[in-house]
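Hi everyone,

Forwarding the result from last night's run.
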Amino acid sequence: MASSTTEPSPPVTKVQLSGKIIAITGANRGIGLAIASSCLTNGASRIYSLDNSPPSPDFTSLSTQYPNQLFALHVDVTNEASVQAGVDKIVLEAGALHGMVCNAGRTKHKAALDFTTEEMEALWSVNVYGSFYSARCAARAFRRQEGVKGSVVFTASMASYRPNKRVPSAPYGASKAAIRNMTHTLAMEWAPYNIRVNSVSPGLVKTAMTYWVEEQPDWEQQLAYYGGMPRLAEVEELGGAYVYLLSDAASYTTSIDIPVNGVIGIC
């Protein structure tokens, strides 16, 4: 008599995203757009940017390079109903959702004694609440789909490990530390649903928010002091970590953070 036990599928050993539909918050520019590009390069079927700002010229260029694969949805991550509507639209339009990158974020460098309540609330509403809402809406979608083993990847920061000595920001670092704790807690909660939850912690990356770093008069001295790779990361250098965590090759990888921080001593 034949056994009714279903044999488990063999582990996937190739890191690629063939056929996957992935949502990325804050992907109309910057790090989010670089993640989108990496996902498309590695075979993703469709990428949806959930963002409340207009698509950048670079986004338009990438969408031309990958016709009918890159889409922008106007979503306010600080409003869970807005995020839910975006996720529902993706599933309805594309037929599935396999991964969510909770990347939208804000930064503000300011002395702790000078931060206003309004500034803290604005920062945390995107970094913490927005990330939580995005992950939760994705998890609901994953659970509704038969056979989907979803992946959530948060963008944390090296500032969650240690302060930036030159421009401290306690509220920003605390918001990113909250994301890393959220990663571990949600990974534990959602493992029974075959949902993996991980994060990536970039160090200093060359974006519009870090233009000032290389303009410091003693930047070369800082690099010599801290060691590590003597430069900022290009945004494209972050993508590999996200691609791995979103891929089926990471099927037993959950509750981890991957630091991408070539300048070892600086967050």
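The CA atoms of residues 4 and 175 lie 49 Å apart.

Cheers,
N.
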